[in-house]
Amino acid sequence: MKGFSGRNLRYMRTLARSWDQAAIVQPPLAQLPWYHHLALIEKSKGAVDRLWYAATAVERGWSRNVLVDQIDVRLMQRQGLAVTNFEATLPAPESALAREFLKDPYVFEFLGLGAEAEERAIEKAMGDPAD
Predict the structure, then answer these.
(1) pTM for the complete prediction?
(2) In degrees, to the nearest 5, what angle opens at C-alpha 126 toward C-alphas 125 and 131?
């Protein structure tokens, strides 16, 4: 074979080291394009995170840029924290929609405040009009 750059060969070696052998050929990993894999390797923290983001990317049809954005805003950690019975009591489309309503839609990392920030500190950092 010809045409492999040194950088791509390093990426291929990293890909093989990042996943166990069975995971590489199983869905959803086999359904993702090469650059999605590179984003998963470079951005996600571990195998569990990578597999969750890969499955979600396939399920939701994310582009590479959307995948990177979702990893950067830590969607996996923010999503699904509420305990519900939606899946057991509602049909699939409605249960997914109901779960979406419970997700935390607010990401205030751009404010540079810590996780313990009080509501008032967030309002102040955003330029609360009441001030």
Answers:
(1) 0.52
(2) 85
